[in-house]
Design a protein that fits this description.
- The protein is an all-alpha fold.
- The protein has one domain.
- It has four helices and no strands.
- Helix 3 packs antiparallel against helix 4.
- The longest helix is centred in the N-terminal third of the chain and has 21 residues.
- The radius of gyration is 12 Å and the shape is globular.
- The N and C termini lie far apart (about 30 Å).
- It holds the Pfam family DUF6401.
């Protein structure tokens, strides 16, 4: 497994899954994620799991190259990752 693949797994588990769970008790986070989900649906022609994981890989790689790293902040990148993970769950459930 490559370093990026390991980092993606951690992002999905530690940020995505935790953020999706947190949405249930945080209306502000849920609203922010909803806005990102709408933007992702406009941006991506396909929101299937493979397309979303490809997007997440490119997004994460670009963010890491800019010096971003996940921490406790609920920044733009955090919300975008939660939105991608939420969409992955929704498409898997369909």
């Amino acid at each position: 497994m490559s370093d990026l693949s390991e980092e993606l797994g951690l992002l999905v588990r530690d940020i995505g899954d935790a953020g999706v769970a947190e949405m249930a008790c945080s209306p502000g986070l849920a609203a922010a994620v909803d806005q990102h989900v709408a933007a992702l649906r406009d941006l991506l022609p396909d929101t299937g799991p493979e397309s979303l994981m490809g997007y997440l890989e490119g997004f994460a790689d670009e963010a890491f190259q800019r010096g971003w790293w996940p921490d406790s902040a609920r920044d733009w990148e955090f919300i975008r990752i939660v939105a991608v993970c939420w969409l992955m769950r929704q498409t898997a459930a369909e």
